[in-house]
Amino acid sequence: xxxxxxxxxxxxxxxxxxxxxxxxxxxxxxxxxxxxxxxxxxxxxxxxxxxxxxxxxxxxxxxxxxxxxxxxxxxxxxxxxxxxxxxxxxxxxxxxxxxxxxxxxxxxxxxxxxxxxxxxxxxxxxxxxxxxxxxxxxxxxxxxxxxxxxxxxxxxxxxxxxxxxxxxxxxxxxxxxxxxxxxxxxxxxxxxxxxxxxxxxxxxxxxxxxxxxxxxxxxxxxxxxxxxxxxxxxxxxxxxxxxxxxxxxxxxxxxxxxxxxxxxxxxxxxxxxxxxxxxxxxxxxxxxxxxxxxxxxxxxxxxxxxxxxxxxxxxxxxxxxxxxxxxxxxxxx
Length: 333
Ligand code: UT7
Description:
Elements: E1 8-17, E2 22-24, H1 25-28, H2 36-43, E3 47-49, H3 58-72, E4 82-86, H4 97-104, E5 110-114, H5 120-133, E6 139-147, H6 157-160, E7 165-175, E8 182-189, E9 197-198, E10 201-203, E11 216-218, E12 222-223, H7 225-246, E13 256-259, H8 264-274, H9 285-288, H10 295-305, E14 314-321, E15 325-332
Parallel strand pairs: 4-5, 4-6, 13-14
Antiparallel strand pairs: 1-7, 2-3, 6-7, 8-15, 9-12, 10-11, 14-15
Helix pairs in contact: 3-4, 7-8
């Protein structure tokens, strides 16, 4: 994908936040008919974090992750020009980014939500890089945060075992085009498959008596796991290869593959299709499950803390999920 690049963009720092309460597969087997063995062998998940407590919301996690990223580079929040909050579980249907803006004190930032489920962080990174590379903004905070535990049907064992709550943040800054580290991206959507993964809006059966107007509410997550699995394993390697090809880069040059953490078997299948050694695939599913828009920044932040990803590494980041939407971004770290 070609973009008008006047200057470069780079990632300065990352941060992440998880709820304190963990919920193991064993505990899960006490509320739905499942087992640690089934969940672990089918998904690689051992436990997940759940945001409990009546006063807690996605905003608390997003704010904490953002503050951690800011602290790492001692950046004053007033230097942030734009905040993009990737989430599908906002605390307010009008958006939660403005609450994050006020709580971290980013008084000069414009803030908006971006809804693209598990691809939200990748789409937000690309959006941020465009604002930076065209010279519109200097510093951008991108946050991926989701609390899908609030939208899961806790009696549906085919979905409730998968998801966990978390937030991850990245601070991007403009730089000279020679130092540009957001090298390329490749994005896709196929709305024909949207039925396979949704939190659908359900209208009331009876309309308002005078207005012929239906109102309703959102339902729980519904997912055709097999279709989403097949789609991810087929489409994500193609997207990654297209993105690498646009840079004349080979898979051998990839140091790290940071995929949306949906299922360990999906990570393995994608790595196998690309002939990328499994050791290069970042995975933290065991501890957190699928944290939707937070999964990639959470995995990135941990991989940096663990000193896996280091300066100059080629990091291939790919997200996929509801929409169905999927895409890749290649970063020289
Ligand atoms: O971030 C969004 C992207 N989402 C994804 O990437 C999800 C992709 N899909 C998946 O990860 C997998 O499809 C699942 C993990 C959701 C399911 O694994 P699967 O191997 O596709 O299992 P399945 O749905 O084909 O179910 C196999 C069997 C069924 O029983 P029968 O019909 O064979 O008797 C299910 O009823 O396993 C049963 N089953 C369970 N058993 C124990 C389904 N869920 C469970 C469960 N515990 N939690």
